[in-house]
Amino acid sequence: MDQGTPPAQATISIVVPCYNEAKVIAETLRRLVALAKGLQDDVELIFVDDGSSDSTREIVKSYDSDGIPVRLVGFSRNFGHQIAVSAGINAAKGDALVLIDADLQDPPEIIPEMIRKWRDGYEVVYGVRTERPGESMFKLATARGFYRLLNEFSDVPIPFDTGDFRLMSKSVADVLRAMPERDRFLRGMVSWVGFRQTPLPYKRAPRFAGETKYPLAKMVRFAVDGILSFSIKPLQLSVSLGMTCAVMAVLGIAYALYLRIFTDIWVEGWTALMIAVLFLGGVQLISVGILGEYVGRIYSESKGRPLYVVDEYYGFPPP
Ligand code: UDP
Ligand code: MG
């Protein structure tokens, strides 16, 4: 798999997913083009327009990048962040790929440091957020809880406080391109691939402009996807939950029989009964729900539809 040491003059593909980012995209372009000009290596900028309804696509296409190749993959509708990143990876031709959000929360200025580490022999350099100003306590707390839970469940360790901001070598990108799953949880997939990986701490900035595209409901969905696509432990959990209930029921029966036979105090009251019925009902529904999540995943995988639909490629060299 090893494709040897990085060439002296490499091509770096920078992949930027964007969804309704008209307010920031020109600034992002400016910063990335400035960065590209300062690098020894060649750079291609790949923007993936995830079905924006604003002018994001037009701004990218009409940007005067002064010779730095700006390419665009335009989706026919909104397919979601992780799928947009996947499309960018598929379209990239570089010896190394950098994934970065469009909102400038991740500073492009540390990309040279990532490239240096890549030249030192690392296949993946992942950004670790040491500070996250401008994000609510709630988001920070939920993010922490999420990574903890994820690592509890997942078989491959997934580093804490990482996002998709990372550099990966061509070999890692090739493995990702060959992974057909629809449930794309990239930071987990990259951990799964293995190779030599190293963290790079950085300070996360607040969003440059515009709003987050991850409201609470989407965040929860993302977390559930992350866990379910990386582990079948929730299934095992529902089994142990069921076992626990069964054991408790047996104990309860034994106790009731004991009272009935050896004492005058007969079991009475419907409270205990109600509680038991509700509790069991809850456990059963949760278990069926967990099962359903997995069955649903099998269903959508089995349809074998393409991951995304492109309605426009712009700026790519002719095949
Ligand atoms: N994004 C996308 N498709 C979506 C939602 C988001 O391509 O459906 C992009 C978005 O434009 C941004 C990145 O994914 O470049 C991260 O989104 P955002 O900054 O809103 O998430 P947050 O940083 O708040 O978690
Ligand atoms: Mg953001």
UniProtKB/TrEMBL annotation:
TM helices/strands, residue ranges: 237-258, 270-295
Domain Glycosyltransferase 2-like, residue spans: 13-174
Membrane topology: Multi-pass membrane protein
Subcellular location, record wording: Cell membrane
Alphabetical list of SUPFAM superfamilies matching this protein: Nucleotide-diphospho-sugar transferases
Record bears the keyword Transferase: yes
Gene Ontology cellular component terms for the protein in this record: plasma membrane
Molecular-function GO terms, alphabetical: glycosyltransferase activity
Name this protein carries in UniProt: Dolichol-phosphate mannosyltransferase
PANTHER family associated with the record: PROPHAGE BACTOPRENOL GLUCOSYL TRANSFERASE HOMOLOG, UNDECAPRENYL-PHOSPHATE 4-DEOXY-4-FORMAMIDO-L-ARABINOSE TRANSFERASE-RELATED
Pfam families: Glycos_transf_2
Gene3D superfamilies found in the cross-reference section: Spore Coat Polysaccharide Biosynthesis Protein SpsA, Chain A (3.90.550.10)
Recorded superkingdom: Bacteria
Membership in a protein family: Belongs to the glycosyltransferase 2 family. GtrB subfamily.
Keyword tags: Cell membrane, Glycosyltransferase, Membrane, Transferase, Transmembrane, Transmembrane helix
